[in-house]
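re: ur question from earlier - yeah i can do the single chain one, its not a big deal. heres the input i used so u can compare w yours
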Amino acid sequence: MRAIRASLGSARGAIDLASIMVGVLVIGVIGSVIAVSVFAVIPWAQNSAAQQSLGSVRTAESVAFVKGDLVVPHRGYFTMSELVAAKLIQASDRTVVAVDTDHGCYVAVSRSATGKDFFSTSSSAEVAPFDSDVTDTVLGCVTDIRTAMDSLPASGGSGAVVIPPAPAGPVSLEVNSISRDATTGYLNIDVNVVAKDYGIAGAVCETASSYCAQVIEGTLVDGTKSILATVYTAGGAAAIYPHTENIVSSTFQGQVVSLRAYLFDGYHYTPAVQIGSPSVPINDPYKGATSSLAINSITRDPTTGFFNFDATLTANGYGLPDSACPSYGHYCTESLEATLADGSTTVLQADRVNGGEYATYPYTKRFTGSSYQGKIVSLRAFFQDGSVANGKQSTSAATPVTDPYSGAKATLVVNSISRDSTSHNFSFDVTLTANGFGQPDSACPNYANYCMRELEATLADGSTTQLSVVRVDGGSYAKYPNVDRITGSLPMSKVVAIRAYFHDASVGNGKQSSSATIPVSDSGP
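and the output i got, formated as tokens:
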């Protein structure tokens, strides 16, 4: 103890006032240097953080553009709220994103805690300061980004990540029944939509109104989408959970393969922001278009040779959206078509009927009529929409028929052959009976008076000469059986045979409808 006291009392162990003052001054200088460095670094760090947030936006937008998301129905770039809803990025109170009307480009702005704004766009990854000199031309994208920036805090915000409101609860779809109306072909659905939390703050229907839209969407067999029903319910604080809505509807649709339900704010009409159920496959009893043709009778008129038909068509579904006559106007044509022996086709009868939503099933049509035709081998019926000329037909199978078509026939009977005892003229008396010479595929298909009926003699030297030439009705004006008694007396050398035939002088087609050549016994020179 005495040693300690001696030490404290000595000059070497004492701390004088001057030493203390020097120490305080040194500490003060060091502290000022540190403070200057820290206050210089903080703004730089805050600006860097704002720029980095734009990089996060670019990454999220790349995913959104390529893949999309179930909660955002459109393709292309997303707004900031859509990115958050799709869980592609965390919400922040100091970053906003705006897109053009086609979702084809975007502009993102991030405000630093220093109050300085930075931007990047879909066309450039470069981050640059956003000031009054930045125009839409510079941005390369016309958006409402300046309006969106009004929501940014002037101070740059708290710097903390904003925790988004609780997400809307799930939506589920329960399918009770799927059927088709037997008379109209309409698709009938009976489903329950069960949803919760859609009216809470930040959810799709947070507005306190009765315009929260519940939509049933169908996916058709070709991949297209169609809205089958829309029912409105209360949103905001008036919503009660879980909410169950029974939706029953009947719509004019093609074949539907799946259904889904989704909700959106119908008050502000923002269908792009929605919550939805997964797609639910369904068994749609869609039958499409079917037609059958029953042949009641097929005959030929014995006097005119016309083709007489009596057939009954039964059809379903020809007016459905993906069938032959989807239009509701009177442009749907039903036709009865014949296939001829040469493979050509002709329409025997055609009428306009209701198509589209106005068609009713089963549709029955009885075709009856008489038509000037060649030999027919089959019939079919079909529907076609003349207003759109889409080439689609709803057709029955071709039904073979037995057509009692006899073609052209001629028979020549020689009543008498003689020579005049004074003049030695060749005298003849014959009877011609003919059928079918005026049919479309015969000698005289034209109805004008150009059908020539000729009686021809073959002489002993092999040459031929006309004994009688007369014009008769051909084509559809011809009547059967055509019976003519032909008599005459002409100077000529010995006749060995005679025949009668018909031919059309107007077209010179070379066709003849001829009787057999009849040998005769002539005593002439």
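The first helix runs from residue 2 to 9. not sure if urs matches, ping me
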